[in-house]
Amino acid sequence: MTRTTDHVVASPTGTRRPSRLRVHRAWIVAAVAFVTIVGGAAFNSLPGLLIDPLHSEFGWSRGEIGLAVSIDMALYGLTAPFAAALMDRFGIRRVVAVALTAVAAGALASVWMTAAWQLMLYWGVLVGLGTGSMALAFSATVTNRWFVARRGLVTGVLTAAGASGQLVFLPLCAWIVGEHGWRPASVTVALASLVVVPFVWLLMRDHPADVGLAPYGGAYEEKPPPASGAAVRAVRVLLDAARTGPFWLLAGSFAICGASTNGLMRTYFVPAAHDHHMPVTAAASLLAAIGVFDIIGTVFSGWLTDRYDARRLLAVYYALRGVSLLFLPVLLAPTVHPPMILFIVFYGLDWVATVPPTLALCRERYGRDSAIVFGWVLASHQVGAALVAFLGGVAREAFGSYDVVWYAAGALCATAALMALVIRREHPAPEPAAR
């Protein structure tokens, strides 16, 4: 049943009056943000599918291709805090529209590349800057501005948008690569990014006050003036946060999160499965299936984050992920069998379940600067992913398989679980006030 809710609306004279709206505008903005992230995430489906085709066509080593992917992931993370500050300065719509265009330009330009440095420029720099501007700091900015109630749930849904993009585009791109080659797949990704731009420009709004509303579940606030010195502010927030222990624990554990997901699974699961003679389309379908359970797990994690200690949730998530990765090398086989399906379900539920509690801890510790702080924490996530994206290719060349990388990632996840618990011991939550 739809519930009618009273919201505060600014009148032309500056006074505020109640307005009965059936759907709060915040949910429309969240829906546009979801579609934006899905469109921007289309490129993330490509690297794992194109490693072998690029290696065969151009003779580039897996290390060179992995380096291009690592540049993309590193810039994805390093751009995020500056993008959050730029959104405060120029608005969400402008920054995201330019970012989507950059992703499309990089994906489209790669169709004509002939040298490895061009791969690093198009995939690494252009796509990295574009996707970084639509990273989880974008989700944090939207959530912080438009929601007071249901923040954990909305964070989970927007985080799951990346997995939704993988679910949509990974099987499609795998089929296109198998039937028509890698270039049409790259064009498809470019078009997916461009299609989203009109939705962002027409439906996205920067702040609830732009349409005379209070944030969902909160009180009306005037829109703050544009923040100048976006880059300076991003660096200043980093320096302030770096003086606190929780920042380094969150950044370190999130770096391991990136290493064990984007850097490892997203980049090398398909090539590793293909090494065991599994068809590329079957491996890509398994990776896409992870996205299905990723959506469920992330939304559920957002719900849990609204109710339970975020530190304990993180410790459980990392520990379970580490255990699952230790079993993966013995599960890879030419065909899909029940234990592999069990791994896909288990790992998918955990993939980005770490995001809602990590963001909640940033919000709790750093207040109004939390979106930028989370951007820097996300930068560490992507630096961890970038290192593994490069080292995974090097390990494959050196050892002939990816097994050592799976085992190392499992051990790192155990370390991340301990780091999450240390946050609680060093900074216990305050006791609730007496009533």
TrEMBL record:
Matches recorded under InterPro entries: MFS, MFS_dom, MFS_trans_sf, Proton-linked_MCT
Keyword Transmembrane set for record: yes
Subcellular location: Cell membrane
Main location: membrane
Domain Major facilitator superfamily (MFS) profile: 28-428
CDD domains: MFS_YcxA_like (cd17355)
Annotated GO MF terms: transmembrane transporter activity
GO CC annotations, alphabetized: plasma membrane
Chain ranges passing through the membrane: 26-45, 65-86, 95-115, 121-141, 153-178, 184-204, 247-269, 281-303, 315-334, 340-361, 373-392, 404-423
The keyword Repressor appears for this protein: no
Annotated protein name in UniProt: MFS transporter
Lineage of the species this protein comes from: Bacteria, Bacillati, Actinomycetota, Actinomycetes, Kitasatosporales
